[in-house]
Hints:
- The protein is α+β, with helices and mostly antiparallel strands.
- The chain has three domains: 3-150, Adenine-n6-DNA-methyltransferase TaqI, Chain A, domain 2 (Alpha-Beta Complex); 193-265 and 393-403, no CATH class; 270-388, Alpha-Beta Complex (Adenine-n6-DNA-methyltransferase TaqI, Chain A, domain 2), CATH 3.90.220.
- It has helices at residues 109-115, 119-127, 139-144, 152-190, 194-204, 209-221, 225-234, 236-248, 270-273, 354-367, 378-382, 391-425, 428-431, 436-447; strands spanning 3-5, 10-14, 29-31, 59-60, 65-68, 70-71, 82-84, 92-94, 98-103, 135-136, 146-148, 253-254, 261-262, 266-269, 274-276, 282-283, 294-297, 304-308, 322-326, 331-335, 340-342, 345-350, 385-388.
- The strands form eight sheets. Strands 2-9-5-7 form a four-stranded antiparallel beta sheet, with no helix packed on it. The chain has a four-stranded antiparallel beta sheet with strand order 15-22-19-20.
- Strand 17 and strand 18 (304-308) form a beta hairpin.
- Helix 4 runs parallel beside helix 14 (436-447), helix 5 runs antiparallel to helix 6 (209-221) and helix 6 crosses helix 8.
- It is globular and about 80 Å long.
Amino acid sequence: xxxxxxxxxxxxxxGTTYKSALLDQPGPVLLxxxxxxxxxxxxxDKLRTYxxxxxxxxxxxxxxxxxxxKDVTQAGDLLGAIARVPKSVSxxxxxxxxxxxxxxxxxxxxxxYWLLRTPQYRQYCRSHATGTTNLGLSRDDFFSFKIPDLDxxxxxxxxxxxxxxxxxxTNHQINQTLEQMAQxxxxxxxxxxxxxxxxxxxxxxxxxxxxxxxxxxxxxxGKGEAELTRLQAEHPEQYAELRATAExxxxxxxxxxxxxxxxxxxxxxxxxxVTRIPVGKKYSQKTASETGDVPVLDxxxxxxxxxxxxxxxxxxxxxxxxxxxxxxxxYMRLIMHEFSAIQNVLPFKSKPAKALNIFxxxxxxxxxxxxxxxxxxxxxxxxxxxxVPDDSIASRFGSIAKDxxxxxxxxxxxxxxxxxxxxxxxxxxxxxxxxxTDVANQTEGAEGSVNV
Length: 452
């Protein structure tokens, strides 16, 4: 096996500082440390645009690669980590913390990208870190890392890794669409009261009850009258279901302490609707281990911090999920598997009122803070007042939202499987221990693990 070094293939273009006053103005997307996943990969949840001057040499476009040669933590998870600009970012701009890779050889970019995702490379970066508070990786050390020349087996492995990443990305995009769908329904029905207001508008315009019902059906489905007529002819069952849903909404509003709400709905404190679930033994970072059957949840967005093999503190599943409230951190998440928890992780569910269960689960996990405000403490959370719909409407929403949420959960589980397959294959890219047959078997396993 013959080798070259990173320095044989790329040059670096470091980014520059920017003015915070020009953030979120029209311009390229800033690609700093926050745009790179730990140990490599693109992170899209905290992107911001920049309206200031950006020289062409600082810009990157879909398919371009960039790295971080520093890390602000001692873990070194971002030191030398690589990211690839996705198609969703038409143009990005390097910051002072990231460098663009300018290729001077014909090495395939996708092969180079995955070489810098291998655990061997990540360990190399950590072992060559300099500094105490902030870690750094020198250009010379970065350039000196040895990489094997591409051969047929590594080409096949690279293609398999590309396919795995594409499947993971597609599942993630599907989940984003599902969440947007559920959010739109929730907001329309329970925040803006659009079906109710559509009925009221139709009646005030001199229409009949049938006209009001048709207006509500249009508000719920987003379809015009002609489209509804076609739906009735071609899919009578769907039309009947839509009509039955529209009939559940009232055609008048009433006054409440939270302003006008649909007639027959009510205002309750959150504490009237939910009940805390005992978590049993509480764990910590020290008492959780790296392996085990039962995950341990923390109170932040990082999720699982470890595992154990004792009895789970809380039982949950897709058909009977649980909400976790993170005391002090203003964060909630929906959990669909059994788990244990650390201090200040507070699981809860709806009180016995089955029609409200999925409505409340969605309210807590997807409605989030744009519909409720609290200080991150359970006592402040439970005294907040919310508008509670009629049970029949909550039940109808529940049947829709449950399907969406369960599909999201399945996609997440599939991505966990795909990620595990990817992580098992990555070390072989440098070690050369994987045969063509092994790659084919791994890829076949990946193909059977997800349906997108």
